[in-house]
Amino acid sequence: MVVPLGEAVRQLIHDGDTVALEGFTHLIPVAAGHEIIRQGLRDLTLVRMTPDIVYDQLIGAGCARKLVFSWGGNPGVGSLHRFRDAVTDAWPAPLEIEEHSHAGMANRYVAGASGLPFAVLRGYSGTDLVENNPNIKTVTCPFTGQELAAVPALNPDVTVIHAQRADTAGNVQLWGITGIQKEAALAADRVLATVEEVVDVLDPVPGQVILPSRVVDAVSVVPGGAAPSYAHGYYERDNAAYKDWDAIGRDREAFTAWLRELTSAAPGRTAPTPAVPPAPGSPDAGDPEPAGRGA
Amino acid sequence: MTTVTWTSDEIMTVTAARSLRDGMACFVGIGLPSTAANVASRTHAPDLWMIYESGTLGASPDHLPLSIGDGILADTADTVVSVPEVFNYWLQAGRIDAGFLGAAQIDRYANINTTVIGDYDDPRVRLPGAGGAPEIAASCREVIVIMRHSRRAFVDKVDFVTSVGHGAGPGDRERLGLTGAGPVRVITDLGVLEPDPITRELTLVGVHPGVEVSAVREATGWDLRVSDDLVRTPAPTDTELSVVRSLTGAA
């Protein structure tokens, strides 16, 4: 249950998977994202409501084939330039996008967690999102005749979250802004949680979300694993790092240098360093079928 | 001639803050809307109920957050709810009075683009996208937009309708089933625009001190109509300016 991050990523995430690393400004699983880059995973469909700089990094490193999202930016700073470069100039690889509104994405996860095929909401009406996304349709209420938006359930192969704590049995506890993590986890086939610490007993905290161990496939202890986002009660958001990312992300050379540093500074890493710009596809990792598959 | 003792961003922020009434529940976007809402809550609207889409209801941060989910918002909120809850139970259910939005582009019917400049499938500039804006624009009782005035931003027709303002004119919001009134005011660094009650076209109703109508028309990408009752924005008070500067860190 409690395994090193490298091993957890190897066991649970594979080339071509649909992967959601969720976190709404708070508790973003950045260290896990970096491990995905180090392991050179390819052709991922990355899902997240608010892809921010760790998704910019994953996209720039060539891990993603597709992005499903509702707001892709550097919060309070501006645009994601690796994301932009991939969309407008296919660098380092073409990136297919599927975009929604926050309300649409949130309800897609709710449907996924609920075992329903789709979600209903009052939204999207009159926007150009409708004609550019075949996953936004309308449905007529059988009781009132109202026309409402329908979006399909979102069921990632793997959801990755970062939480404050887990206990030794693998129950995971998070608090503060908990965003969409509960729904994203319960919608997924497999769940990886990185945590600040493992404790014997989880003391209750106001506003907490507990993910019982039976829905968590692996817990990895990664203190500081959400930085430069924050972990409520542990460390604050490093706003300067978000601002600094703008200059790195803007420039392919600066980004490539950043990437080289990330992939070379990896204690215990066994996977090959990804080439930049990477070729599409990557060698088969040859891992056994992970736990939780086929649900 | 007035001696200008404030910046164009400051008069814009102060004017936007004045648009919020005390006691309103206000859905606040990051950037200029957040600054303006925080000015309002520190001046004439101490009971403004600020909601950030991260799920923080009734936040009262002691400094401006950089993101919609900074820790200070959770620390000071009346309650923190999940993202599905904030969008479904609070916004969609009609519990929010005002939505406060920014935009990259806006058109004469106050439709908003935050998605792409150029063609969607081959964009010149890829912008962050929709976020919470489409449903904020749909379901808040009213929407206030704050953005800097320029020909690039104020266009005859937006390249992409991310969030619906008044569609193509009268009756469109009703036809589309949008429950809120839509944009009631657009506040810029030059003045204030409001939809004409009949045509729904954005019309200049106010100019800031020292700003000529011709300058606003020049900065607008359509033939901007000017209200017969055009007003001059009252100058910021010393209190308003000191609050703005304490928040933005300007001396």
Mean pLDDT value of chain A: 91
CATH topology of chain B: Glutaconate Coenzyme A-transferase
- DSSP strand tally of chain A: 12
| Fold-level CATH name of the domain at 5-103 and 154-258 in chain A | Glutaconate Coenzyme A-transferase
Order of helices and strands of chain B: HEHEEHEHEEEEEHEHEEEHEH
Name the structural class of chain B: alpha/beta
What is the CATH architecture term of the domain at 5-103 and 154-258 in chain A? 3-Layer(aba) Sandwich
Strand content of chain B: 15-25%
Number of strands of chain B: 14
Descriptive key words:
heterodimer, A: 295 residues, alpha/beta, Glutaconate Coenzyme A-transferase, 9-stranded mixed beta sheet, disordered C terminus, B: 251 residues, 10-stranded mixed beta sheet, two-stranded antiparallel sheet, 14 strands, 24% strand
Mind explaining what this structure looks like?
The complex is a heterodimer of chains A (295) and B (251). Chain A is an alpha/beta fold. Chain A contains eight helices and twelve strands. Chain A has helices at 5-12, 30-38, 53-60, 81-89, 102-114, 181-187, 239-250, 252-264; strands at 18-21, 44-48, 64-69, 96-99, 118-121, 137-140, 147-152, 158-167, 172-174, 190-199, 209-211, 218-221. The relative contact order of chain A is 0.21. With 251 residues, chain B is α/β, with parallel strands linked by helices. Chain B has a ten-stranded mixed β-sheet, with helices on both faces. Chain B has a two-stranded antiparallel sheet with strand order 6-7. Chain B starts with 7 loop residues before the first helix and ends with a helix.
